[in-house]
């Protein structure tokens, strides 16, 4: 049986659930999350996005084909030209200025996660890098879908975090998530059991680091 992305998720089912259904996510969904926790998360996510852009630059360097190179370039361009601008604007709505963002210290959870992804990509090949990025690229779309499936989730003006959910349920994000799953499914189909085991370790570590990122938001840790 060829491997698929869903096999990675299934092999780390406990960690994946802890990430998708994290207390931060639940509170975001029902609107009870402390605004300070969300602001701390948003600030660190700005720093995360900058490192995430570097990971796409690394993906370009690691690309063996023109099609992979174009995909990495489009990802880098989307973050630098669109996502970061939207994030700065969203932070402004939450009372965080661009100047404050530019001078933020990185929290340890941000450092650990982003440098882990970059190191994995540096040491390995393009597939290692994509697997390290996949909890980020797939997880948030799944989180939006999970929140929408829950009765406790509050949508609309009654939830101050509604715009966040809307961003990740958007057609654009959901399409990007499906494209990433298709890319991974194609590559994973050819790997040996030993190689799959290595990739599972990367996927598990990146998922655990996503959990730490939520914890960092909840506890305001630096
Ligand atoms: C930490 C984290 N993980 C995932 C995403 C969604 N790209 C994000 N913005 N930040």
TrEMBL record:
Catalytic reaction list: thiamine + H2O = 5-(2-hydroxyethyl)-4-methylthiazole + 4-amino-5-hydroxymethyl-2-methylpyrimidine + H(+); 4-amino-5-aminomethyl-2-methylpyrimidine + H2O = 4-amino-5-hydroxymethyl-2-methylpyrimidine + NH4(+)
Sequence similarity: Belongs to the TenA family.
Start and end residues of each Thiaminase-2/PQQC domain: 15-218
One Pfam family recorded for the sequence: TENA_THI-4
Gene: tenA
Primary role: Catalyzes an amino-pyrimidine hydrolysis reaction at the C5' of the pyrimidine moiety of thiamine compounds, a reaction that is part of a thiamine salvage pathway.
Organism: Marinobacter qingdaonensis
InterPro entries per record: Haem_Oase-like_multi-hlx (IPR016084), Thiaminase-2/PQQC (IPR004305), Thiaminase_II (IPR027574), Thiamine_Salvage_TenA (IPR050967)
Listed name of the protein: Aminopyrimidine aminohydrolase
């Amino acid at each position: 049986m060829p491997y698929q992305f869903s096999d990675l998720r299934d092999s780390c089912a406990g960690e994946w659930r802890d990430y998708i259904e994290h207390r931060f996510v639940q509170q975001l969904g029902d609107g009870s999350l402390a605004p300070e926790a969300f602001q701390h998360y948003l600030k660190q996510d700005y720093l995360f996005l900058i490192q995430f852009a570097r990971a796409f630059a690394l993906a370009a360097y690691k690309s063996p084909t023109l099609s992979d190179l174009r995909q990495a370039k489009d990802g880098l361009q989307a973050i630098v030209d669109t996502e970061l601008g939207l994030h700065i604007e969203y932070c402004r709505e939450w009372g965080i200025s661009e100047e404050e963002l530019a001078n933020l210290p990185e929290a340890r959870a941000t450092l650990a996660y982003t440098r882990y992804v970059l190191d994995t990509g540096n040491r390995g090949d393009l597939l290692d890098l994509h697997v390290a990025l996949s909890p980020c690229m797939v997880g948030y779309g799944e989180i939006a879908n999970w929140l929408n499936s829950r009765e406790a989730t509050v949508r609309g003006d009654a939830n101050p975090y509604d715009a966040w959910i809307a961003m990740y349920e958007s057609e654009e994000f959901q399409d990007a998530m499906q494209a990433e799953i298709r890319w991974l499914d194609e590559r994973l189909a050819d790997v040996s059991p030993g190689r799959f085991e290595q990739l599972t370790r990367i996927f598990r570590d990146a998922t655990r680091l996503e959990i730490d990122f939520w914890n960092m938001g909840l506890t305001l840790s630096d």
